[in-house]
Specification:
Length: 158
């Protein structure tokens, strides 16, 4: 069956079964391999994308549940202001180790910054608790989110 989905502002026609996970559609049909497969059970966060701005686990999101919602992925998040600030902070603080979890981390962090420009530590912990990093980059992730939040406030004051 053909579905129309909007990803990073672009409209795509996808011919697949309705119960196909969005992660499969992104990676195997659209060739967007930034979102990663980790657990396939909404437990690790490696596959995180945004659906209408909210972080979502694409491994358990069926194609037929998306409708007209707007999807954003790691391939497009740098075009948004919160995403660009998060990515800059990630680079400045050299957050990444092996990198496998990092697209999901950045998607969760950028959704947090978009909804809460001044997150407290507890907000960061809540927002990021579903994103597992086997390399243990959690301390740098928290610092990078704080740096991005600070740059957001400084930008707003200009
Ligand atoms: S692959 Fe989706 S949450 Fe782990
Ligand atoms: S950077 Fe290796 S799993 Fe997170």
């Amino acid at each position: 069956m053909a579905f129309t989905i909007i990803v990073n502002g672009n409209t795509h026609s996808v011919d697949a079964d309705g119960d196909t996970p969005l992660l499969w559609v992104l990676r195997d049909v659209l060739g967007m391999t930034g979102a990663k497969f980790g657990c396939g059970m909404a437990l690790c966060g490696a596959c995180t994308v945004h659906i209408d701005g909210a972080p979502a686990r694409s491994c358990v999101t069926s194609l037929d549940s998306i409708g007209a919602s707007k999807i954003a992925t790691i391939e497009g998040i740098g075009a948004t202001e919160p995403g660009a600030r998060i990515q800059k902070a990630w680079l400045d603080l050299e957050v990444v180790q092996c990198g496998y979890c990092q697209p999901g981390q950045i998607m969760s962090a950028s959704a947090l910054l978009a909804s809460n420009p001044n997150p407290a530590d507890s907000d960061i912990d809540d927002a990021m608790s579903g994103n597992i990093c086997r390399c243990g980059t959690y301390v740098r992730i928290r610092e990078a989110i704080k740096q991005a939040a600070q740059s957001t406030r400084q930008g707003a004051q200009k």
